[in-house]
Design brief:
The model has no long low-confidence stretch (mean pLDDT 96). Strands 3, 7, 8, 9, 10, 11, 12, 13 and 16 form a nine-stranded mixed sheet that branches. The protein has two domains: 336 residues, Bira Bifunctional Protein, Domain 2 (BirA Bifunctional Protein, domain 2), CATH 3.30.930; 89 residues, 3-Layer(aba) Sandwich (Rossmann fold), CATH 3.40.50.800. The protein is globular. The chain is built from 14 helices and 23 strands. The structure holds adenosine-5'-triphosphate (ATP) and magnesium ion.
């Protein structure tokens, strides 16, 4: 992509409304545009990152056996009357009437809709286990939307729903999502810690929030330092092996970890001073077992191996991709801007032409652009006539992992410079060497 043909509305000034660094940097880097209270458009740079985040989520959901669907945003109030939640949900739910004066709502979550699907088609235990997920916009009329896409009113959510014959099965489904989440966040360059969360009237211990440690987080959290060095399960993890998956969950739930609401002073005091991590955290995912909470009132049942009817046992599993984009920035930036982890970066390489219009610089840039893109790299080629200082500032701000700088003096010597955004390290290389560095054959 040539920068001259891209849409990157960079802001020079710090936007005054932005209280936290991710919000400030997303506005400054032209990733999002606020459209109303808690409502944002995703501009090209932001959309590229959001898509990469969603792709990782999809790959890991699929790996764990979940199936992607897509349910509507606008739902019928009648379904929510069946579950009993229409009156309970409160002011966060945006209620709408259609032209026939029917009560509708903009979905804040999808348990009712997905239970309706299962109720309609799933009749036997042989059709289970089943896990259906989608990545869809949600609306919640939050009391205090703030921090940009971190807490907005309209936001993207990946929500998965598992259905099983009994608690045993539901627990195995829960464990698969637990492990899938560990992999998902690690792949984005984040260290997420699963923390016991409130199960309310459902009871039991099957509810965890996945928390990223960051000073600007909204929750106060407590955990054992051991979490910071636990090994995240690899690609070969066998999601078909319930025992293997349960063992991973055991390892990851053994050390102490809790959010403020679940904090247990007695357990905390038992930890040595040096092992205690008390910090602020951002919730990026939440998994929850709810049993027959929806299947019972809505009549979603299957015939079991015993020939009897059983209400299916369910759980729900949320991740906030739009919040994650902000959380990644909170975890990875410096004074000059964003530092994207490779897996979610909007482009792999920023190719900077220091003197666009200079025949040699243009030629070398054109060659490198073709070589890098040919090697499968996404390249943002700054071919604009801005001054070098401005180009460097933009490149640092938008945070691509590598900058490849082509200037007239270097080109005369057959050399270019590469800079690693994270370490700041610079290296001068012959042009052919630079091509090889990024996977192109010389
Ligand atoms: P919170 O405690 O932050 O309000 P929640 O408990 O209401 O979140 P869930 O219902 O568990 O959230 O939703 C699943 C995921 O969706 C959350 O872990 C979070 O990543 C994301 N999410 C929830 N609310 C918002 C929001 N207002 N803006 C952006 N993302 C959100
Ligand atoms: Mg939650």
């Amino acid at each position: 992509m040539r920068l001259s043909q891209f849409f990157l509305p960079i802001l020079k000034e710090n936007p005054r409304e932005a209280e936290i660094v991710s919000h400030r940097l997303m506005l400054r880097a032209g990733m999002i545009r606020q459209q109303g209270q808690g409502s944002f458009s995703w501009l090209p740079l932001g959309k590229l990152v959001l898509d990469k985040v969603c792709r990782i989520i999809r790959e890991e959901q699929n790996r764990a056996g979940a199936l992607e669907i897509l349910m509507p945003t606008i739902q019928s109030a009648d379904l929510w009357r069946e579950s009993g939640r229409y009156d309970d949900y409160g002011k966060e739910m945006l209620r709408i009437k259609d032209r026939q004066d029917r009560d509708m709502l903009y979905g804040p979550t999808n348990e009712e809709v997905v239970t309706e699907i299962v109720r309609a088609y799933v009749k036997s235990y042989k059709d289970l286990p089943l896990n259906l997920y989608h990545i869809q916009w949600k609306f919640r009329d939050e009391v205090r939307p703030r921090f940009g896409v971190m807490r907005s009113r309209e936001f993207l959510m990946k929500d998965a729903y598992s259905f099983d014959l009994d608690f045993e099965g539901a627990k195995a489904a829960y464990n698969r999502m637990f492990v899938s989440y560990l992999r998902t966040f690690t792949r984005m360059g984040l260290q997420a810690i699963p923390m016991r969360a409130d199960t309310g009237p459902i009871g039991g211990d099957l509810s965890h929030e996945f928390i990223i440690l960051a000073d600007t987080g909204e929750s106060q959290v407590y955990c054992d330092r051991e979490y910071l060095s636990l090994q995240v399960p690899g690609e070969k993890t066998d999601f078909g092996n319930d025992g293997e998956i349960a063992d991973i969950v055991k390892t990851w739930t053994m050390p102490y970890a809790a959010t403020d609401e679940m904090h247990d002073e007695a357990a905390w005091d038992k930890l040595g001073e040096a092992d205690r991590v008390s910090a602020r955290g951002i919730e990026v995912g939440h998994i929850f077992h709810f049993g027959d909470k929806y299947s019972k009132p809505m009549g979603a049942k299957v015939t079991g191996p015993d020939g009897k009817d059983h209400f299916v046992s369910g759980g729900s599993y949320g991740i906030g991709p739009s919040r994650l984009v902000a959380a990644i920035i909170e975890a990875s930036h410096d004074d000059n801007g964003i530092i994207w982890p490779e897996a979610v970066t909007p482009f792999d390489i920023g190719l900077i032409n220091m003197k666009a219009g200079d025949a040699e610089c243009d030629r070398v840039c054109g060659e490198l652009y073709a070589a890098f893109t040919g090697a499968g790299k996404d390249v943002l080629y700054d071919d604009t006539d801005q001054r070098p200082g401005g180009k460097f500032a933009t490149a640092d701000l938008i945070g691509l992992p590598w900058q490849v700088v082509v200037g007239p003096r270097g080109v005369a010597a057959g050399e270019i410079e590469i800079k690693n955004r994270r370490t700041g390290e610079r290296e001068t290389l012959p042009v052919a060497e630079a091509r090889k560095r990024f996977g192109a054959t010389a």
